[in-house]
Amino acid sequence: MLTGPQYIRYYSTKKPLYTSINGRPALYGLSGVAILGIGSLCVNRHHHAEALSSSSSAGKEGKAFNSYGFISLKLRETQDINHNVKRFRFDLPNEDQVTGLTVSSFVLIRLTKPGTEDKFWPSYVFRPYTPVSMEDDVGFLDLIVKKYDSGGASEQIHNLKPGENVQFFGKPISFRKYEPNKVDSISMIAAGSGITPMVQLLRKIMENPDDQTKVHLLYCNSTEQDILLRDQLMQLEQAHGNQFKVTYCLSRPDNSWNGERGRITAEMIKRYLPEASTNTEVYICGPDGFTNLIKGKKGFFGRGKKGLLEQLGYETGQVHAF
Known about the structure:
Blueprint: E1 6-8, E2 17-19, H1 38-41, H2 45-53, E3 70-82, E4 85-91, E5 105-112, E6 124-129, E7 140-146, H3 153-158, E8 165-169, E9 173-174, E10 185-191, H4 195-206, E11 214-221, H5 230-239, E12 244-250, E13 260-261, H6 266-272, E14 280-285, H7 288-295, E15 296-298, E16 304-306, H8 308-311, E17 319-321
Parallel strand pairs: 1-6, 10-11, 10-14, 11-12, 12-13, 14-17
Antiparallel strand pairs: 1-2, 3-4, 3-8, 4-7, 5-6, 5-8, 5-9, 15-16
Cofactor: FAD
Subcellular location: Mitochondrion outer membrane
Binding site for FAD: 127-129, 144, 146, 154, 196
């Protein structure tokens, strides 16, 4: 078992949780990530060393993420997206491999907490990210990472230099299997870096000529400079205008902004997204406060505050949060 204190961050927009009991990690509420198999995340130090030294054996059948333990990926290059966001391209262990990830799955990065590198039991930060590269891209994995003012893992990642290695858990974690044409329309509501899983799913839908699912995206940010992957979204909308529509909303726009202003409201959702029905689903990704506002938050004994979608008639089974 990894007996040093651990930091787990469930999604890229959430704060890390310090989880340790008597020096041993406690994986609280990690319903998706706990399935990583406490025997896979929590390997003993000896097996951990073996896993790191055997990255060349990772990726059976041409898939890089197809083994338990951790694999080491080398950073090939970085690209500045805006003032606090970068794209990171990592080389897969073999240049002819694909990642083995499916749409709407994420990878788990492990970073050593600064100041604990030389300790017998270092402390780690685990950080999940949804790749923006596609399932069939060969030889590389792309991540988009936003640097937060609080520092932490995002700052460590932003300080990486090409040629440095990062540890990834060898098995991808799937959020939800997508089925083409299961519903007539999908509504996506995203904030900030929460756009990454949406773009992955969006590209999957638009690149399948047999998939007729219509997609409406409501994408919220603070300023226009914070909008991520805008070029990709514009290209997809131009190429698939009858199937995909995007609306941008800014909470702190300048005077030149002609789009939606202010924070997201029920009226805004009603204006731009399809009405609740059995033939639509909603996907949400963003910070906790954003997600709770839209989806709602359960309190003690099942009581809690209704979200905007419930107020508009959406059923719980229709709403899915990354």
